[in-house]
């Protein structure tokens, strides 16, 4: 029986020991895979503990991220975000507005009314032609920044592969079914900083959030949180429920492309980041790290075998992964 990390208002997000899938016998591996798949099918979210990425290294990555965001603004803008095709570099507070809307004019309207209170730095794979990562100058406290982040990127990429294998086992298809779709690593590592903010900001503007309600675009997202809180997931009844941080876990949610790939047998659930639950006059900074996992840019995505009995039951036409993701991303900037 899996313990629930969240259980409220019909939303049940399981807490799953991932070592049981990685190291267990075939029975334990299958049981864990089915629990992972069930979590994605019902909540769209799971928490994983005992992942291969060690806690002390995760802490080091968080500390390194914080050092980047402490740089003067002009230094951060030197490595600024440029295009949806590249999707690399720094975005200042208010530039991006995550939302379910796709019309640029509508996005700009809500961005002006309640900009997201966050800044971010995106990192892609190192060997993508035409899209180099714009690394900051390494000096003083930023020494080793690139090696830390590329190491973390690669470890998250490996975890993505294993989670997709668990989904495949849970579905009853070949464990390596997804391998050729995710082996390139067309993923995005996003460092996030939500600056300190007075609680009155949220009272003056009830629509103000740190990150607006949205779904993610790709296959899955690996979210590493600090202890501040603020992440909320929408329940089946339409209420936003706190996804409280649990030490030494990663929150994993399914994205829109995986939901489409699964013929909607997997859920991509709306979530947001709001005022932290703790009542402070000034909310301290919040740091999180999201690793957005995607199929390879060149992959052609159509319904997974076993999610339909006849061609007429396929809900979506096949699409190119890279084109789909660029179109979705372009609307938020």
From TrEMBL:
Xref: PROSITE patterns? FE2OG_OXY
User: Sorted alphabetically, which keywords does the UniProt record give?
Assistant: Iron, Metal-binding, Oxidoreductase
Q: Which residues form the signal peptide?
A: none
Highest taxon in the source lineage? Eukaryota
Q: Report the record's Gene Ontology biological process terms.
A: small molecule biosynthetic process
Q: Where is the Fe2OG dioxygenase domain?
A: 185-295
**UniProt-listed InterPro entries:** DIOX_N, IPNS-like_FE2OG_OXY, IPNS-like_sf, Iron_ascorbate_oxido_reductase, Oxoglu/Fe-dep_dioxygenase_dom
- What Gene Ontology terms describe what this protein does at the molecular function level? metal ion binding; oxidoreductase activity
Oxidoreductase is among the record's keywords: yes
UniProt family annotation: Belongs to the iron/ascorbate-dependent oxidoreductase family.
Protein name per the record? Fe2OG dioxygenase domain-containing protein
């Amino acid at each position: 029986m899996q313990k629930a990390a969240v259980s409220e208002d019909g939303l049940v997000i399981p807490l799953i020991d991932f070592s049981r899938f990685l190291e267990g016998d075939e029975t334990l591996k299958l049981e864990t895979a089915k629990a992972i798949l069930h979590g994605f099918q019902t909540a769209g979210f799971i928490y994983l503990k005992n992942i291969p990425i060690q806690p002390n290294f995760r802490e080091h990555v968080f500390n390194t991220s914080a050092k980047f965001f402490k740089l003067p603004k002009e230094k951060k803008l030197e490595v600024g975000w440029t295009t949806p095709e590249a999707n690399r570099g720094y975005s200042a507070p208010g530039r991006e507005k995550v939302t379910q809307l796709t019309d640029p004019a509508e996005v700009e309207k809500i961005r002006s009314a309640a900009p997201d209170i966050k800044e971010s730095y995106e990192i892609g794979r190192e060997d993508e032609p035409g899209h180099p990562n714009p690394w900051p100058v390494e000096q003083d406290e930023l020494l080793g920044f690139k090696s830390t982040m590329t190491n973390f990127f690669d470890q998250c990429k490996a975890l993505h592969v294993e989670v997709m294998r668990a989904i495949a086992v849970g579905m009853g298809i070949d464990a390596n079914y997804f391998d050729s779709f995710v082996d390139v690593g067309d993923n995005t590592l996003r460092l996030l900083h939500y600056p300190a903010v007075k609680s009155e900001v949220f009272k003056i503007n009830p629509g103000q959030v740190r990150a607006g309600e949205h779904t993610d675009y790709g296959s899955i997202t690996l979210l590493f949180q600090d202890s501040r809180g603020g992440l909320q997931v929408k329940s089946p009844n339409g209420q936003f429920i706190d996804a409280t941080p649990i030490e030494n876990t990663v929150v994993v949610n399914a994205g829109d492309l995986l939901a489409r790939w699964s013929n909607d047998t997997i859920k991509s659930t709306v979530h947001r980041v709001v005022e932290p639950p703790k009542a402070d006059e000034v909310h301290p900074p919040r740091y999180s790290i999201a690793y957005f996992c995607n199929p390879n840019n060149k992959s052609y995505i159509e319904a997974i075998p076993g999610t339909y009995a006849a061609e007429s039951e396929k809900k979506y036409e096949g699409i190119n992964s890279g084109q789909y993701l660029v179109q979705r991303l372009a609307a938020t900037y």
